[in-house]
């Protein structure tokens, strides 16, 4: 069973950062191929305009590969137009990491508690909130979005201590809102930073779970392949 993992921006380093996270899932029945968008797709998707541009660049290439894989994962944490675009052209599973993280959060969240998202740039606070409401049709169990102030392309260029400090601050703001039981990592570039989020929760005396959207999407895609809907 084969999954094409799609990075819709043109940053090869971001694609490379996904590989160990996926391979460490140890799902022997699944094989993975990684796709990085060609230029002129932007190196970092930081708003609705760059998201749409990346979809426009990727779709003509990906539409020719739909027969070659059993499922597709869109590794951009947004309501990315490529998800619905590919779904219109194949009956195979197409899973966005944003949507997968939300559904996983709801599956593990006690009914009386909420989930929230820690993401990159401030523009995503509004965009992800709108995307969440569009996906769920509401947001009673949604605690909101807090951002690091960095765009996705900067995540691998800033000093590690600066990134962790920003992650800690964003996580603190989210958790101090109260009643948060699950935190979703709101960017593919944040993979591997669960420990920072957990550390903040421990310092505040809180128990939370952390959902990595890339992991959630790959596991979801593998399950959907087996279901043979």
Automatic annotation (TrEMBL):
Protein name: Hydantoin racemase
Database matches in Gene3D superfamilies: 3.40.50.12500
Domain of life according to the entry: Eukaryota
Record field: transmembrane: none
GO MF, one example: amino-acid racemase activity
A Pfam short name: Asp_Glu_race
Family the entry assigns: Belongs to the HyuE racemase family.
């Amino acid at each position: 069973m084969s999954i094409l993992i799609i990075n819709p921006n043109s940053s090869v380093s971001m694609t490379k950062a996904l590989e160990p996270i996926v391979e460490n899932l140890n799902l022997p029945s699944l094989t993975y191929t990684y796709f990085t968008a060609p230029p002129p797709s932007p190196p970092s998707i930081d708003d609705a305009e760059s998201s749409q541009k990346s979809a426009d660049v990727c779709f003509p290439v990906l539409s020719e590969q739909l027969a070659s894989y059993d499922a597709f994962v869109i590794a951009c944490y947004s309501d990315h137009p490529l998800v619905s675009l590919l779904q219109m052209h194949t009956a195979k599973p197409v899973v966005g990491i944003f949507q997968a993280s939300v559904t996983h959060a709801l599956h593990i969240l006690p009914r009386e508690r909420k989930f929230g998202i820690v993401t990159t740039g401030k523009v995503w606070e509004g965009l992800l909130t709108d995307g969440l409401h569009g996906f769920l049709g509401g947001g009673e169990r949604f605690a909101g979005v807090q951002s690091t102030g960095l765009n996705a392309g900067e995540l691998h260029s800033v000093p590690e201590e600066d990134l962790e400090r920003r992650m800690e601050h964003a996580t603190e703001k989210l958790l101090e809102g109260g009643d948060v039981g699950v935190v979703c990592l709101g960017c593919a570039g944040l993979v591997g930073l669960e420990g920072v989020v957990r550390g903040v929760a421990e310092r505040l005396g809180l128990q939370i779970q952390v959902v990595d959207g890339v992991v959630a999407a790959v596991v979801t895609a593998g399950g959907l392949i087996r279901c043979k809907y």
